[in-house]
Amino acid sequence: MNARAAAARMIVMSLVVCLESAGAAVAAAQPTFRVTLDEGAAEAAPAGVVAGRLVVYLVDEASSIDQPPSAAPFFSEPQPMLGVTVDALRPGESVVVGGDADVFPAGGIAPGSYRVQAVLDRFRLNSQWSREPGNLVSGVGRFELAEGGSPVVELRLGSVVPERELPEAEGVEYRSFESRQLSAPRGRYVAVNAGVILPIGFDAASDRRYPVVYQVPGFGGDHGSAARQASRLRGADPASALGRLARSVIWVVLDPEGPNGHHLFLDSRANGPVGRALVEEVVPAIDSIYPTVSSAEARLLRGHSSGGWTVIHLALAYPETFGGAWSSAPDPLDFRAFQAVDIYADNNMYTDDAGEVRPSYTDRAGVVRMTIADENAMETVMGPANTAGQQWDSWQAAFGGVDEQGRPARLYDERTGSIDREVAASYRRVDLAARARRDPAGVGRIARDRVRVIVGDADEFDLDAGVRLLAETLGGFEFEDEQGWYAIVPGATHGSVLRTEAGRRLEADLADAADDAAGR
């Protein structure tokens, strides 16, 4: 165990003791929330009834959080929340959220001053309730919870989430590509969305053809981030790597969202053939609409975090379609380091064999801000039985199978953290490092020749461990005869790694590959 991990575990253990003590003190007196469907929101219920997951989000006024409570979960300062499933609610009717609700933290809500907001997530089609038209949300209320008090807090679901308006930006075109492969099994229209950024100086009448960079956002991101990416590209120094890319490629920002959250473009029983839909339907459509160089070496992949894992997977799984991946801070590349857990050897996701809790989010000072148990408890409030569409539920939907109800099969018990050994073994099929070990001449060679990865050794989610294990599987970090490389950056975090020399090298390498693909 390194010093950072040791310090983190000492800190988190003290936090657990404090929470348990606080839980014993506050369990007897808790607030109750009466949530009423406002008559003015009746248009959201054309049949007169709404249903879904009702979550009441709280923010302690003593915290540093200045966002609305419904912007949760907050990784650096987890806040209380309660959730219940609503089967039928009519305008004017109320739901009481209290003693029977799923609650985080388990010990209850501590005395204090709180902001509060309720959300009824009716559809479960996205990891972000605010992107689903027709979902219902209350205003922000405030209440005081005194020692021994049991206030009843009134909230009204009075606002309806409208149709989403994607941000506009110069050179950006939004596209939705119908996927028959995804529509057929789901029994409804399903599209794969993309934000297409045209290069500076683009002339549709010209005979010039462009390489394509396919970007996959991280968890919570989607094709709407194309506007921000276009601003970065257009605002870059023309002589810089980003400035070169702004003029030399068509940049496509993909939407990785689905009912189970980020699907990683990895075919699975829970998510369907999302990878095949991209390769067999979306990529040919892009090539038919835009003047692309339609060859594998001219299709380049870029992603960060969950997007970082995705682009490596796509490069390894579809080498005839994509020429290479440029990845930063990717999700676990080796499931022997599934964040802080070896899912094949460890018995529990939440605690080690000595009973010490495992961190999920550790700041660069070594303070554990959120444990794996914390994060999963919040996901259970938002959607029990792997239905929240949040990070851990999304991984189980992408990497595993389904249960008897068609929900993502549980890698571990969401209450206790106990790992299901049979389900864990099935994850070897999609474990990228395990795939490289099984097929060193195929998958391993592509990982050495076509993949570039950067990650910080102070990554808040311990993602550097998986990068290190994959690099060691491949025989090192820099390869003499191949073009791929891996870099673990001292002192860099999940986000700051992009602003390091390694981050600049990653962009320059991508720009060079684009120039080579264009024949310049």
Summarize the structure.
The protein has 520 residues and is α/β, with parallel strands linked by helices. Helix content is 29%, strand content 23%.
Write the layout of secondary structure elements.
Elements: H1 3-26, E1 32-37, E2 50-60, E3 81-89, E4 94-97, E5 102-104, E6 112-121, E7 136-138, E8 141-145, E9 152-160, E10 172-178, H2 180-186, E11 191-197, E12 212-216, H3 226-235, H4 241-248, E13 250-254, E14 257-258, E15 261-262, H5 274-289, E16 299-304, H6 306-317, E17 324-328, E18 359-362, E19 368-371, H7 372-382, H8 391-399, H9 421-426, H10 432-438, H11 440-450, E20 451-456, H12 464-474, E21 485-489, H13 501-518
Parallel strand pairs: 1-9, 12-13, 12-16, 16-17, 17-20, 20-21
Antiparallel strand pairs: 1-4, 2-3, 2-6, 3-5, 6-7, 6-8, 7-9, 10-11, 11-13, 14-15, 18-19
Structural write-up:
This protein has 13 helices and 21 strands. It is an alpha/beta fold. The strands form four sheets. Strands 1, 2, 3, 4, 5, 6, 7, 8 and 9 form a nine-stranded mixed β-sheet that branches. Strands 10-11-13-12-16-17-20-21 form an eight-stranded mixed β-sheet, with helices on both faces. α6 links the parallel β16 (299-304) and β17 (324-328). The protein is globular.
